[in-house]
Amino acid sequence: MNKKYRNTRTINLRRKKREKRKKRKKICATIIAMILIVSLGMISKQIYVKNHSCKVLVNNEQTVEEIEQATENLKGKTIRLKGSDIYNKYIEMSKSLKSKNIVLVNENNMLEKLLAMPLASYKNASVLVIDNDNIPDDVKNEVSRINPEEVYIVGNDTSISKTVESQIDSNKKIKRICGKDICQLSKNIAKEMSGYNTVFVASEQDKDKNTLIASVASKLKAPILFSTKEDVKNNRFITKVEKENRYILNEGLFSKEKFNDESLIDIKDFNNSSIKINNKFFTKSNSIIILDSKEQEDILASSMLKRPIVFYKDNITEDEKGYLKNSDFRNIYFESKIPNEFLEKALNIKNNLEPGELKFNKPKAAFFFSHQDDVILFAHSAIMNAVKELGPENVKVVLINRGNGSFVYKRIKSGKLSPKIPSTMTLEEFAKARTNEFDRELDSYGIPDENRTYLDIPDSSTKEHIDELRTDIREFISDGQDYQFFTFSYFKEPQSDHSALGRVFRELYDNQEIDNVYFVNKPKAYEALDKDVKFSTNIKTDEDMQTVRNAMNSYAVYEPENGLYGIGIISVRDMFETLEYNLQNGGYIYGTIPGQKDSN
Q1: PANTHER family annotated for this entry (predicted)?
Q2: CATH 3.40.50.10390 is held by the domain 97-178
């Protein structure tokens, strides 16, 4: 088949397919809207729960366990934690659980909230924080959603007044656990958790640092006991546990008679102690939680998830890298206020993306680029090496834009550009000629026709087609094939189509829909990157060098009978001259952009 005709036919089919898909979406949206209108009344009757004169919709979000089961055979999932105020921080965590009971605790008492965490785990309960004498409406709604069998109140009347009890449904079993001081309260909570085989001993003077142990204590259903050095010696809630399962958080409470040497958990260096705790108690975990170490409420609330916590900081330490590599996590719970760069650092470690010479660690490679000459100018050695290492049948190329937006077309129409190119050329013929050059380049690499896709999005309008582009990429990866992706970076990228494309892939990577993507930078942006995130790839043989020269020549060939006018080299002659000068450098590549700000 004539290549010129094939390109026209492919693009036209693509346009028709996109129009049909848009039409189907409109029809589906109308049908769904009608179904929702008809069924809302029926659904509300069935899934609303009445309790204490409140009505709340039963929450259908996935629980922690459901998320982990659903992602067991997938790459994973990124779950962004939210909660606008202290009450909703705990409510959002509660919605991730299948709790049967409730533990209520005063919002301002850090020590009582800490003690409440393992108690709630033991009682299959959610921890909800309230005022001293009132249950806020949002908390009431969550209580009604859970419809608990039992409600536990932690603290005496000073922490939570008796008026709160009157705001709880009288049909519920209510139990208050209190004590004359925090040490006695911790013992009374331990008494409520009969049968425990691990215990953590702490000092109330370390209340901010003690939060480190909340998630572990919840996981192990192990009470936290506040004690003094004298009390430690005769505390039966400690001595009932085997010596090797007694852990102490304050060196001043340590007694060789009561604890093993390895029982001391050092919490002096708060930021780094979390990894030591994770290495000891969370050697393997399907999920991790990324938090800011300064946000004590986030640490306590997320402890209900019973997962290891990693603290956000500018640089990940070697100990943290080692833990993340070995923990085999899939899912990430991520505090929304933390910069995405740290999320990427964790994902890069998980996905074994290390700087240096580019390695092809997937069976297939896919190159997504905006315009016809982008691959030759910025990723020629990457695609050349992909073809050599994986085979041309395992390399796919997706051209995003139509190629109809080049400023060169106006110069052609004026007749001032080149006497060889007819000024009568239509815009459609111009775009088609550019695609002919692109196809000739791909022929040079040996990439088969069936591995080429044309999305045909008009130039300079990619950002208006983000949803459509996202759908196209998801359709591309839905066949179950394992791809290594290459695309444009948005970091310091002035060209709107390039940056929009990069942002879509960044979003898919952050959400773990893809686990291996390399972003191609232009030289100035590449120079601004930290060396720890730079990847490079070079042409390796004289034969490959000649192949790339042939590919480059595709944009200089003048064969009007084949729809080739040398438009590429006329459009960006300076870039092709730079390419000739720098042919050993096949594009500027990095994995993701930790260390760089999202606003760049």
Answers
A1: AMIDASE ENHANCER, N-ACETYLMURAMOYL-L-ALANINE AMIDASE-RELATED
A2: yes
**pLDDT the model gives residue 593:** 43
* Number of helices (H), then strands (E), in the chain: 24, 23
Distance CA(89)–CA(96), nearest Å, equals 12
Angle between helices 427-445 and 3-47 (to 10 degrees): 100
pLDDT of residue 583: 73
This prediction has a pTM of 0.75
Q: What is the pLDDT of residue 76?
A: 81
- 3-class DSSP assignment, residue 453: strand
Cβ contacts of 421 within 8 Å, gap of 6 or more:
412, 565, 567, 570
Residue 202: closest CA among 192, 212, 188: 212
| Residue 168: CA count within 13 A, CB half-sphere | 28
Mean pLDDT, rounded, for 327-353: 85
Q: What is the DSSP letter of 406?
A: -
Q: Cα–Cα distances in Å, from 78 out to 62, 335, 377, 517, 595?
A: 13, 10, 34, 16, 20
Tokens matching residue 213: 């142990």
What ranges in 110-198 are assigned the alpha helix state H?
110-122, 137-146, 182-192
Task: Please give the pLDDT value at position 63.
Answer: 62
Q: Which of 92-106, 119-133, 475-489, 523-537 is predicted least confidently? A: 523-537
